[in-house]
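Support reply, case 0932

Customer input (verbatim):
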Amino acid sequence: MSTSEPTLGDRVKRLALPAVLSFVAVFGSFGASRGQEDRRAADWFMVVLLLIGTVSLYWLRTHPVPVLWATVGSTLVYMLMEYPWGPVIFSFVIAVFTVIRTGHRLAGWAGLVALYAGHVLGRLILGINEQGVYQVLLVGTCFVVLGFVAELFRGHRERVMAANKTRREAELRRAGEERLRIAQELHDVVAHHISLINVQASTALHLVDRQPEQAGPALAAIKEASKEALVELRSIVGVLRQSDESAPRQPVTGVDRLEHLVSRTAMAGLEVHTVVHGEARPLPTGLDRAAFRIIQESLTNIVRHAKATEATVRIQYGEESLLLQVDDDGKSLAGPPKEGNGIVGMRERATALGGTLTTTRTPTGSLRITAQLPLPLP
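Our regenerated output:
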């Protein structure tokens, strides 16, 4: 079913102007005829011409150009038949103003010229008493002014529409950027915890038959990692749903949770050492989250791809930038490092903040990830 069907309220609003204008035009013209004995007497045909112009305004919103020409025709015939001067021009003025304002410029100006030229030439052809040159020029000037006023309103309307379009595009762009950020959050959370669960599950399967008493810690680690993953996923999905619930109870992910990340990674068999240079200080939320996720993804890559037992995370607080470096003691393949989705996502995070992220090989063949994130000026 079409949703463009006008409602009863819309019809009433559209009917209000024609109804009021019809009343004003008919009774106003009859009243004006009393002081214009030199004009044709008011009759039923005059009422028909008036109603053609006013009633047609009901369709002005949906069919502006045909309505304009209906008002041009009825107004021109009214004038050439020398009915009393009065509110007959109102419907034409409203129609031409609306047509030009809504962008039908050519039709609007054509309507102005048609009514003006038809009136002047029609009086000459029919031999009606000619108006003075002053009156002819005055009427023409009034028509030109009407057209230019409509043009001013059209320009204002187009500027408002352009501003609204720009604002909507900006909102859509921000929404897209937010979706990308959330997608990166989901990737980092899922990849990290699933990697830990996979390593612990492999350990548990290896020990369950040979040393069943040592499989318990691995299973406990799986339970803890899966619980933490669910908590973080619930928090991120809550943002997607734009719920009005209270703020999440979990602390905002940041560098201050690094020790918790290190302890969780240690359960997967990777011992992580942290080295901090400079004076640690609070970081902006976006930068703090990005730094944590870069470190988290780097450790995830080590757990999944490197044959390592230890890793070192270095954080250096500089005056203008935050430097992150993650190394491991593994021996990966020689040659340039292959960059998967994880490294691409980390680089996108760094680039979004105006920073850089590089991947290089250490002399031992392991992967080194270095990120430099600019700090805001104090």
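We compared this against your earlier run and they match. Two observations from our side: The mean pLDDT is 78. The radius of gyration is 39 Å. Please reopen the case if you see a mismatch on your end.
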